[in-house]
Amino acid sequence: MTEQVTRATFDEVMVPNYAPAAIIPVRGEGSRMWDSNDKEYVDFAGGIAVTAVGHSHPKLVEVMRDQADKFWHVANVMTNEPALRLAKKLTEKTFADRVFFCNSGGEANEAAFKLVRRHAYLNYGPEKHEIIAFNKSFHGRTLFTVSVGGQPKYKEGFEPTPQGISHCDYNDIEQLKALISDRTCAVVMEPIQGEGGIIPADLEFAKQVRELCDQYNALLVFDEVQSGVGRTGTLFAYEQLGVTPDVLTSAKALGNGFPVGAMLATESAAQSLGFGTHGSTYGGNPMACVIAEAVIDIIDTPEVLDGVKARHKLFVDGLTAINEKYSVFKDIRGMGLLIGAEVVDTYKGNAKVFLNAALEEGLLMLVAGPDVVRMAPSLIIPEADIAEGFARLDKAVAKVVANA
Fold first, then answer.
1. Is residue 207 classed exposed, middle or buried when 0-12, 13-18 and 19+ CB atoms within 10 A define those classes?
2. How big is the CA angle at 334 (ends 171 and 382), to the nearest 5 degrees?
3. Which of 213, 280, 365, 367 is the most buried (most CB within 10 A)?
């Protein structure tokens, strides 16, 4: 007999590093979810930009069941067919020549940051080890990735952290020019900052970052853990910037919720991680790779990617209509279906009040920092679900404003 659990069970048995909502989701279909009390929710959160083709997609269920009847894991002293097919597909569809598989975005970034340092060490010497990243950036929760990330709160209490890392303001090329030098081994950036507030890169800024990296023989790393796999309307966001990185990281939507991550690299960069220099026990396991291959096949089609662009307008129009009624947002921004609405000063530091109100109305959303409401739904969310979600959000915002 299955033991009954409630939200209170979390407080009894889990490490308190999360503060989950009162509800416990138990099933999902498409862009709808149901909790343990059978209350229905429209999902504008997508598991933090993860469930890019919705919950329980029939194709993913099919390939998962088929692979489960074969084998789930093989040690990386051997390779496997799903991993090879997925790697081939990713290299054919991107700038990259080589792929390293792991289990998460944090692990993909950890691999990327190790690669850039080793690349510089092998080609230029140990003095060339400095990494430049951007304030408000987020790259993961390992000790190395929180150090490269531009949010000091995630490092507090874990010092001393890895050194040789500096930060400047995003979209400020003059600050970057002042920092970069012959000691710089890499510049790390998100094409659109996610956790930092849904801030897209200026096209000219991105172009000049590439030029500076070339000038100083530094690698350019794009963290596309959140922006990749169709989220912005192209398979990867770098395609819209007109800038090609040397290294790119992916996860989140790549597995639609099944743990998988990938680091993509050019041939010259990839050669720095020779035999024995890095690894992952579960990385590239056949179950993860067969699911990720199906995700890529579903998303990388004109129908889905063009649909992302069309849905972007529906979300912006929906937020604009609510703002015209209640005047709660000072800015609405984003790319594709990674959208942020920055709250007005009345609610500064308290964007989560809208999240909580929406939850009561049966709508799942996110925040991106304390001031920005974030939406990152399925890329194939039905238009009827979008309309219903905004009807619920209207009710939620009305209650927040009435109680202000």
1. middle
2. 160
3. 365
> Model pTM?
0.96
Cβ atoms of 130 and 117 closer than 8 Å: no
Query: Tell me: the pLDDT tens digits for 118-128?
Result: 999 999 999 99
User: Under CATH, which number does the domain 7-56+302-403 receive?
Assistant: 3.90.1150.10
Instruction: Return the beta strands (E) in 165-254 as ranges.
Output: 165-168, 184-189, 192-193, 199-200, 219-223, 247-250
Q: Is 67 annotated as a binding residue?
A: no
Q: Any binding-site annotation on 141?
A: yes
Return the DSSP state at 345.
Answer: G
Classify 71-299 by CATH class.
alpha beta
pLDDT at position 67 is 97
Q: Is 42 annotated as a binding residue?
A: no
Measured between alpha carbons, how far is 43 from 30 in angstroms, rounded to an integer? 9
Q: What CA–CA distance (Å, rounded) separates 14 from 155?
A: 22
275 in a known ligand binding site: no
Residue 118 known to bind ligand: no
Is 224 annotated as ligand-binding?
yes
202 annotated ligand binder: no
138 assigned ligand-binding residue: yes
User: Per-domain residue ranges for the chain?
Assistant: 7-56+302-403, 71-299
The single residue listed with the structure tokens 């991106």 is 368
Strand order in the sheet with 372-375: 329-335, 338-343, 372-375, 366-367
Q: What share of the chain is helix, strand, coil (3-state, %, to 5)?
A: 40, 20, 40
Inform me whether the pLDDT recorded for 342 exceeds 70. Answer: yes
Angle between helices 286-299 and 58-68 (to 10 degrees): 160
